[in-house]
Design a protein that fits this description.
CATH superfamily: DNA methylase specificity domains
Region (Disordered): 25-60
Keywords: DNA-binding, Restriction system
CATH architecture: Alpha-Beta Complex
Protein name: Type I restriction modification DNA specificity domain-containing protein
InterPro entries: Restrct_endonuc_typeI_TRD_sf (IPR044946)
CATH topology: Adenine-n6-DNA-methyltransferase TaqI, Chain A, domain 2
CATH class: Alpha Beta
Length: 200
């Protein structure tokens, strides 16, 4: 299927998207007194884990609060696994944007967040916007998005959410299996477990 498309640069100029970044710095930006917010890191976005950084460990030049529906994308390609955009949920809201991430905030009247995340992180889209050799960075303004009505966007977005849930379940199952295998190996080599008496 062929679509009429627009680049992220086009959508930024048209006001359908707003782009934010937080640059690493030596000293954290000053903040009001109170409990410091957690920082959503590049690792968190890649792994699907909750915000794990701190302003002490990940100082940035400005505080960009994350809102539900924001779409987050790593700045660089990673040698392991595909690039997956993350749609911020209520657990991410209130944390702040960490370094080496793009934050795209869509106009909810014009763009569905999951539709946006699904198409922007497509392999052919990402690799078509990659620049550099040893370290490949994403030129986010070159990423493309189909121009389709909101009703169809929401249908795509709903399906992309199901794909995301399936991928998350597969990753969790793989992690549990790896942890179990590691514990068995440790138990066998430390003497806490014995191999079965019957022949395998």
């Amino acid at each position: 299927m062929s679509w009429r498309t627009a680049t992220v640069a086009d959508l930024l100029r048209g006001g359908a998207l707003t782009l934010y970044r937080a640059t690493p710095t030596r000293e954290a930006v000053s903040r009001d007194a109170g409990e410091p917010p957690s920082v959503l890191t590049q690792h968190d976005v890649r792994t699907g884990e909750p915000p794990s950084g701190s302003l002490h460990g990940k100082p940035v030049d400005k505080l960009v609060p994350i809102e539900v529906g924001d779409v987050l994308l790593p700045e660089t390609l990673h040698h392991v696994g595909p690039v997956t955009a993350r749609v911020a949920d209520e657990h991410d809201a209130g944390s702040v944007l960490g370094p080496h991430l793009f934050l795209l905030r869509p106009d909810p009247e014009r763009l569905d967040s999951y539709f946006l995340a699904g198409f922007l992180s497509a392999d052919q889209n990402i690799h078509g916007a990659a620049v550099g050799s040893s370290i490949q960075r994403i030129d986010i303004r070159r990423l493309r998005l189909p121009l389709i009505p909101m009703e169809r966007q929401r249908r795509y977005g709903h399906t992309f959410r199901r794909v995301h849930a399936m991928r998350s379940a597969a990753n969790l199952a793989a992690k549990i299996a790896q942890d179990l295998a590691d514990h068995w190996a440790l138990g066998l080599t430390s003497g806490a477990l014995l191999p079965p008496l019957d022949d395998p």
